[in-house]
Amino acid sequence: MTVADNVAYPLRLRRRKKAQRADRVREVLELVELGHLADRYPHQLSGGQQQRVALARALAHPPRLLLLDEPFSNLDAKLRERARTWLHDLQREIGITTVFVTHDQGEALSLSDRIVVMAGGLVRQVGTPEDVYHRPSDLFVADFVGTINLLAGEVVADDGDRARVVLDGGVEPVAVTKAVPGRLTGSVTVAVRPEQVVLDPPADDDRLTRIDATVIDHEFLGDHVRQRVRAGNAVVTVRAPSPSPSAEVTIGIPADRTLVYPGHPDGRTDA
Q1: pTM of the model
Q2: Residue 269 — pLDDT band, cuts 50, 70, 90?
Q3: SS3 of 140, please?
């Protein structure tokens, strides 16, 4: 079937009059920016255009709820990014509640008003993208959403909302915020995003715990570098605008952007 016939199919099933079908098909094809391709056949369309035809067909008979299951999975990275922006604008325009299933955290964070993180059929966290990213409810969510450092340590003091933790092989305790209520003792996991770790921070910044580290390597990623450093036995990934010129560096870890969870990163807990 042509693009127009595909989009009209749900309306034919509902026995809409021909003139009504034509008007609605024209309307939804303009909505998905495919009005000029109404007479094309599937083999004449790109993968992204085929996805938009499928979406137009879903919208032809106005739904109360739109369900999208990995809609961009067959698109290349550049087209996927454009499709994400286009869908975001479209969803705001039509105002239909949309459930979007994806394994791509970037899609989830950029498209959603609320995110549900699931594992093994269980809901692990429900919240805004900001909540899920900055305040993950447990280690699974912290590790699953985005890139994060999960560092083993031992609690040396519990100060109520915060704790002090010595990282594996370290000497100086790191001030961290407690992710879950209750007193912390023994083995814990410190979670901090690479962009929150400060490379060679100023000496007078008392918001940070300063730790001496040694550069392992770095990856150039265009607008930033991802640099790995060793602090004690811990390997910490840092996002920085450029690589450090020195092999010996200092990293700064902010207490208000660093969370601590009970248990060891590999799942071990104290007896």
Answers
A1: 0.81
A2: very low
A3: helix
